[in-house]
Amino acid sequence: MSAGIKGLAPSEVQYDGSALRVAIVHARWNKTVIDALLAGAIAKLKSLGVKEHNIVVQTVPGSFELPLAVQKVISGAQVQAGATATDLLGGLMSLSSPKPGSRTGTPAPGASSATANMPSQPFDAVIAIGVLIKGSTMHFEYICDSVSHALMRVQLDTGVPVIFGVLTALTEDQALERAGLGKGENKGHNHGEDWGAAAVEMASHSRRWG
Ligand code: DLZ
């Protein structure tokens, strides 16, 4: 089979993520695929020098919730790894006093969690990860359309790069292949790695652009 012409050309510049702070906001729908994408993104961020303690992970229920959560994270909402969207929004109302017993959850593999009372520091980039798989209704089309437009709007409105880590797959197999979990001989490519690289590159540009 021919390799084809599609795909991302490697950058000629080696970007250094060692001074960057990156948030990952991910949905929990279709978790098997999400987990692989998340691991791929984190591994790439770390391989480009981003320090573990500068990678902060926030979860939300589904992809539809991603734009608001990304916007809140950029605007300095308190982030707790593994917290629910409710925790995030609740945290906004009481930044320095997290709800007693609020769930801090388990940090994603290799990522550190933000502690409850840590002062919020700006993020240089945010990766929004979701996996949408087409069902039998129009639900998929509406969510894909609104989420992609809203994430674009957040990055243009805030000036903070938002990496579009949302798979819009017509089948489960398409989603699996794009997370490196393909069932055939070719497991596919984990797009989470590309998103990690895009975050470091765009964050570096953004720092220079001011
Ligand atoms: C409801 C729903 C459906 C059917 N499918 C997906 C999906 O494939 N991927 C995803 O991330 N989320 C899905 N959701 C949930 C919505 O994104 C959202 O969480 C709910 O509609 C609540 O707003």
Automatic annotation (TrEMBL):
Pathway(s) where this gene product acts: Cofactor biosynthesis; riboflavin biosynthesis; riboflavin from 2-hydroxy-3-oxobutyl phosphate and 5-amino-6-(D-ribitylamino)uracil: step 1/2
Classification via InterPro entries: LS, LS/RS, LS/RS_sf
Any one Pfam family here would be: DMRL_synthase
Q: What are its GO cellular component terms? A: mitochondrial intermembrane space; riboflavin synthase complex
- Residue ranges for the region (Disordered) are 96-117
| Sequence ranges of Polar residues compositional bias | 96-105
Gene Ontology biological process terms from the UniProt entry: riboflavin biosynthetic process
Q: Report TM segments.
A: none
Keyword check for Transferase: yes
E.C. numbers: 2.5.1.78
Source organism superkingdom: Eukaryota
Catalytic reaction(s) noted: (2S)-2-hydroxy-3-oxobutyl phosphate + 5-amino-6-(D-ribitylamino)uracil = 6,7-dimethyl-8-(1-D-ribityl)lumazine + phosphate + 2 H2O + H(+)
In its keyword annotation, does this UniProt entry include Transferase? Answer: yes
Q: Read off the CDD domains from this record.
A: Lumazine_synthase-I (cd09209)
GO molecular-function term, one example from the UniProt record = 6,7-dimethyl-8-ribityllumazine synthase activity
Functionally, this protein is described as follows: Catalyzes the formation of 6,7-dimethyl-8-ribityllumazine by condensation of 5-amino-6-(D-ribitylamino)uracil with 3,4-dihydroxy-2-butanone 4-phosphate. This is the penultimate step in the biosynthesis of riboflavin.
Q: Which family does it belong to?
A: Belongs to the DMRL synthase family.
Instruction: Please give the NCBIfam families that the UniProt record associates with this protein.
Output: lumazine-synth
Q: Which HAMAP family match?
A: Lumazine_synth (MF_00178)
Q: What is the name attached to this protein's record?
A: 6,7-dimethyl-8-ribityllumazine synthase
Q: What is the lineage of its organism?
A: Eukaryota, Fungi, Dikarya, Basidiomycota, Agaricomycotina
